[in-house]
Amino acid sequence: MTPRQNPQPAPPLQVPAASESELFLPLRTAVVLLAALVLGIVIGGLTAFTGVHPATAVIAGLTAAGAGTVALRALIQ
Predict the structure, then answer these.
(1) How many CA atoms lie within 13 A of 72 on its CB side?
(2) Positive or negative torsion for Cα 51, 54, 56, 62
(3) Measured CA distances, 52 to 2, 31, 48, 60 (Å)
(4) Which residues contact 57 (CB under 8 A, 6 or more apart)?
(5) Distances (CA, A) of 13 to 7, 9, 10, 16, 18
(6) How far apart are CA 75 and CA 41, in angstroms?
(7) Are 57 and 44 in contact (CB under 8 A)?
(8) Are 64 and 39 in contact (CB under 8 A)?
(9) Along the 77 residues of the chain, how does pLDDT read in single tens digits?
(10) Cα torsion at 27, 72, 51, 59 (round to 10°)?
């Protein structure tokens, strides 16, 4: 009769750490785009509350997001 051995636990999975070069977007770019998105939504929403045509509110939001991207890119360094 052979002696039974206790099962050995599986080694833990090793996940490589993400370096700065492996990120999909740099942190600065993500912050600028997120802030521009919030700015566009706020301006578009406020424009919609004035009672204008919805397309006008969308255009105002997109314009604010585009201009905000350029301005925030220059401000956040």
Answers:
(1) 19
(2) positive
(3) 85, 30, 6, 11
(4) 44, 45, 47, 48
(5) 18, 12, 9, 10, 15
(6) 20
(7) yes
(8) yes
(9) 666 777 777 777 776 665 656 778 899 999 999 999 999 999 999 999 999 999 999 999 999 999 999 999 999 87
(10) -90
Three-state secondary structure along 32-70? HHHHHHHHHHHHHHHHHHCCCCHHHHHHHHHHHHHHHHH
What are the angstrom distances between the C-alpha of 59 and each of 41, 45, 54, 55, 77?
Answer: 11, 11, 9, 6, 28
Token reading at 2: 């052979």
The whole-model pTM stands at: 0.68
Look at the chain and count its residues.
77
In this structure, what token pair is assigned to residue 36? Answer: 């521009």
